[in-house]
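In this section we turn from sequence analysis to structure. A common task in structural bioinformatics is to predict how a protein folds when a small molecule is present, because the ligand can shape the pocket around it. The inputs are simple: the amino acid sequence and a SMILES string for the ligand, here NAP. Study the lines below before reading on.
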Amino acid sequence: MATTKAWVLHAADPRAEATRGQLTLEQIPLRRPEAGEVLVEPRIGCWEANMEHAIARHPVDVARQRGEDRIVLGTCGVVRVLATGSGVSGLREGQECLWIPFGAIDENGYAERIAAYDAPGSPGLLSGRFVTAARLLLPLPEDSRYPAERWAPFARYFTAWDNWRVALRCWQAQGDDHWDEPPLVLGWGGGVVFAQLELARRAGFRTAMVSGRDSRLAGIAASGATPIDRREFPDLDHDAAKASGDPDALDRYADSRDRFVERVRELSGGRGASIFLDNLGGGLHRVTLRSLARESVLSTVGWKHGMRLSNMRAVECIGRHIHVHTHAWRFQDCRRIRDVQESTGWLPEITEPVASFDAIPQLADAYSRDVFDSYFPLYEVNA
Ligand SMILES: NC(=O)c1ccc[n+]([C@@H]2O[C@H](COP(=O)([O-])OP(=O)(O)OC[C@H]3O[C@@H](n4cnc5c(N)ncnc54)[C@H](OP(=O)(O)O)[C@@H]3O)[C@@H](O)[C@H]2O)c1
């Protein structure tokens, strides 16, 4: 049987506590494409949070959950068609495509399981070649104006498009069409929020994004959003302050919170954020709520700092705060979002080097330590 190289993650020993795993370079079997399938070779992938969750085996050991000894990760990137099985139309050898990693799709078009993550048996981009269902391949536009590197982080952009669409419609549901001055859209998180803020800016909103590193603050400013340096507000995490046991910690939290909210008010004509894009949650939730204007939206597609949140329902009702929760995007919107990207140039600038296939473990390690300047860490599988 044919084989191909792959960075493999093994399931933890079921008798031991699941600790952080490691990627090992191995040869894995490669089968021929059957009816409705395509053999592809990954070109460029973008590292994603789900890959870190899988390697960290937190909150679950994904390989063990899938009932497999070893799995191949890699959910987001550009692949090239090598051969098609019978009954496949619209795809030809050499064509570059986005690989949509929807392992199981519900009747609304939402992913219930992600291929190369929690969908059993599914391959991923950390392999030299793999076989996939043809329907998961979305061809890049013919003669695209943009290189594969700029398409590779597409999942963050597709997610951003979907969440922004819902957030904007919710905000419009109770706001006026007439603006005296542009309302503020504020965000914290990573690449998804960065992409959403660009949509907000193009829709005429004033935008601002929070970061704690100089390189990202410069990138935010270059994109046309106002950078907010979170190092000026070091104690915004209420839960951390409360859990610390330090009697002064809650005072320091209140000081950071009040100064942050004051900054938001300065940027928004005194009103507060009309839409707050928050993919962090956890102990930052209180500050996001405080930063909201009346008739505003708190919109999220992530929970990096914690997913159990509480709020005062009366305050949220009186403030007319709409809370939006979304996840990924609808499968049937893929072509539409790709076409928006191509026609409007809404794609990331890639400024950092692309990691080689051999350097993928180092990339995984750097991602786990959150030390990238870029919001879109890329790796190359096949040149
Ligand atoms: N459900 C979905 O469809 C979906 C899709 C994509 C992502 N997500 C989830 O969304 C979450 C965020 O992912 P992401 O890719 O947007 O971000 P990310 O790359 O994981 O980075 C989060 C960043 O938040 C920044 N940050 C800003 N303000 C902060 C503050 N006050 N305290 C701490 N950090 C702050 C930090 O950057 P600085 O150092 O620059 O401040 C940090 O690097 C993850 O949990 C991910 O799994 C979900």
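The first strand starts at residue 3 and ends at 10. As an exercise, try to locate the residues that line the NAP site and compare them with your own expectations.
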